[in-house]
Structures are given as structure tokens and as C-alpha cells.
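Orotidine 5'-phosphate decarboxylase, pasting as requested.
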Amino acid sequence: MNFTDQLAQAQRLHHSLLCVGLDPEPSKFPGAWQGQPDRIYDFCAAIVDATKDLVCAFKPQIAYFAAHRAEDQLERLMAHMRRVAPSVPVILDAKRGDIGSTADQYAHEAFTRYQADAVTLSPFMGFDTMEPFLRFPGKGVILLCRTSNPGGSDLQNLRLADIPGQPRVYEHIAAQAQGPWNTNGQMGLVVGATFPEEIARVRELAPTLPLLIPGVGAQGGDAAATVKAGLKTDASGAITGTIVVNSSRAVLYASSGDDFASAARRVALQTRDALNAAR
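C-alpha cells follow.
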């Protein structure tokens, strides 16, 4: 099953648009685990076990593992997710953005070493950045488009004078991803929940692509506005352009006590239900 089919299946099965981001910070771990990087796997696996029936995807951020020499724990976690939540796709949040043989190695890392179903990429160096990843049949490639950070406007909101209509950079990325870049039919876009009007613009330009939307929860993005702007349905109510709404810190660190996993489940359930109520 390819990434977009797996995503659609998980959304139907769990009635969910929620993605839980796995950004483990040992300094925030509960109880005796606090400050213990060798507990990264244990912490993340407990979150996965507590929320696996509430989500449409998981999104481990590779930097949180690599910073603590925990890539082996990430491999174990990826295997754990495939075992206990085989219907839930895993998006490796790596934001790679290189070309040539280096991009080949990054693609091998994401899809062969870690067995991810999709990976986030930076499109700054153009199609050459994506091409090695698109060679992997059925794997998702999710491009940074209009990110949730304030500094994203430094480049993403600039107009391109050499293109008819002078689209903004993020608009051009969206149009290319909907069109010629999407050679394997598995491309998506990252659009921040802090910019609902621009989510709507990206959806206009890329009506069928899945949108990975961070920023709901700790970053203050509004769930209802996000769903209204990004989720596209036809006259029968069937989803024709889906969204994957990520929440990380609000779920992971819902409690600093021994009840952290049950607290994470409670917040994930609340977030899932808020997203569904906005449909």
C-alpha cells in the first residue's frame, strides 16, 4: 500500500486527522526518566502505545534522536510502530535538502534504514532534491511550503518576478508539487496552522495533495480554522484533499508524572475530537 492510501485508510479506521509528533526531550521526561537519553525509546513507545488508535500518522523528528546519539533507538521505535500500529503511516521529519549522491544517501536513510512511509524535504535546491526520494515506489515526499515559524516569511512570501502572475515562493512550490514535481503521485506539502488564510491558498493551488499541518497545540494554531482552510471534500462529503494535523509537545508532555502516557492519550483524544468537530 502506498503512503497516500495508507494515510486515507488510517484516517477512516481511526476517524482521525491527528498526527502525533515524536520530539523526545529527555529534560522533560517524567519521574526517574528525566534527563535520561537512554529512555528515549521507552518514552516514545509508551506514547505510541497510548495513542495508536487515535491518530492517522506518527511523525518522529530525527534531530531529537540524533542529538542524543539515539539513532539506534529510533530504529527500534520505527520497528515498534510497524509492529503495534501497522495501519498508521510514519512520517520521518528530517527536512533533508541536498542533491546528487548525498540526496541518494538521505533517501536510503529514510526509506531503507528507518523504513519510513514518508519524509519531509526542503525544496530550496529544486527538483534534484526530490528525485532520489521519488524513485522509491509508494513512498511519500512532503515538501516545506508555508511553514509555521514567523521567519518563514523572509523567503516564502517573496514574489517571483520571472513567473507570469508573480506568485509568491510558497504558491509556486504548491503549484509545482500539484503538477510536474509529483512524479510518483505521493507528494504532500507542509503548511503551518498559524497561517489559515495561506493554508486555504495552498489548498486552492494543490487541491488533492495531503497537507501536513504543524502548529496546533503548543504553537497556538486554531484547530477549527485549520480544518476549514485545508480539508477539501466533494458534494458527497468524501475527502478529496486531506490534512494531517500535527501536535507534538501538547501531547508528549501533557503530564510530568507517572501518568504521562494516559495524559497524552487524553490530550490526543481531545485534539482528535476538536478536529472532527470542525469538519
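Note for the archive: The mean pLDDT is 95.
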